[in-house]
Amino acid sequence: MWRWRRFSKMIDPNQPDLLGYLAGALEPDERHAVEQALGQDPSLRNELRRVRRQLEEIQNADFGCTDLDDPQHIPDPISADFETAEWDSPSPGLADRTLQFIAQQRDLIESAESPRVELASGPSWRGRASRRSVARRSNGAREPLASGAAAWRFVDFAVALSVCLALATLVLPMVNASLSKARITACANNQREIGVALTQYSEHQNGFFPRVAESGTLAAGGIYAPTLLGAGYVTDPRVFVCPASAIADDPSLRIPTLAELEAATPDEMVQLRRQMGGSYGYALGYRESGVYRPTRNLYRDSFALVADMPSEDCASSPNHAGNGHNVLLEDGQVVFLKSCRLIGSTDDIFTNDEGKAAAGCHINDAVVVRSDVSP
After folding, report:
1. Torsions phi, psi of 58, nearest 5?
2. What is the pLDDT of residues 84-113, one digit of tens each?
3. CA-CA distance, 93 to 71, in Å (whole number)?
4. The whole model's pTM is what?
5. Which secondary-structure segment (H or E) carries 125?
6. CA-to-CA distance for 241 and 248, rounded, in angstroms?
């Protein structure tokens, strides 16, 4: 059991030990902590269901697992009380039986490959002891031992492959989840660096962030990136690229300079406007009494300034496979959202109060738009 729990913790030490929970390898207090987390996090309950389904491979090997397909094994997330709910206990000793199964297969292989010799003392012995006895009985002539290549037959590969496939079924999704979290973290770090640059810019521009012009060739949300690069507030253009976005692996991607934008032909400008913001969107200004005004730094903790580039329908961002988006707030915080609204706010960060991807309807109406969108 200790080896099973150690393996489970090596997968992702920061997450509840779902594998250990299903394997019955947790102490009572650890098991209670996992059930509390399941009661509070719907996504964790979905992950538990997924892991249980993947354990079917092991169940089919007659390890005594419970029915993993029965949704009644998991309490209803709406009606169940996870503090008092009765959970189906994982089959006792699942981890130990798994290791025992592997050991039994190894013993069967050794039995098939090694000669058996009855000794005068009674019991029969396998493996190296038998081969040494045969060597002594043949007048000192030592029989050559089977090579490693000869000892591996089809049954060996079948057993090894089944074990590897079972482990891969459990481990690979968790590895992918870890990579996804790492990319979300790297993306958040990019936005924090952008936030520092925007704050520094505003401090030298009477409190105003880079202005998105209302009309003209440079009237596009992505203008903030060339502005920060041109003024020296950001020195690495890759800061404007989310590592989880579709353009992250494009070696030809580059943030154009203001001079290149001004000298571009109309056809070139169409492409430059799409890529000059990298993979992040930027907040437009707002209209007051019909007059368009740029965004001013008021250090608000509920005003979205930069976010993962919104989708065409402004429903989410494609950067993280539609699972959510990082958002840089005006006060420098970065939060990860799974919806288009900040917690405790009714303001949609990708559209204004009229439901349009355009300038805000008032000073507190934040609208983060795609790189090529004008006010």
Report:
1. -75, -35
2. 444 444 555 655 665 666 666 666 655 655
3. 23
4. 0.56
5. strand 124-125
6. 6
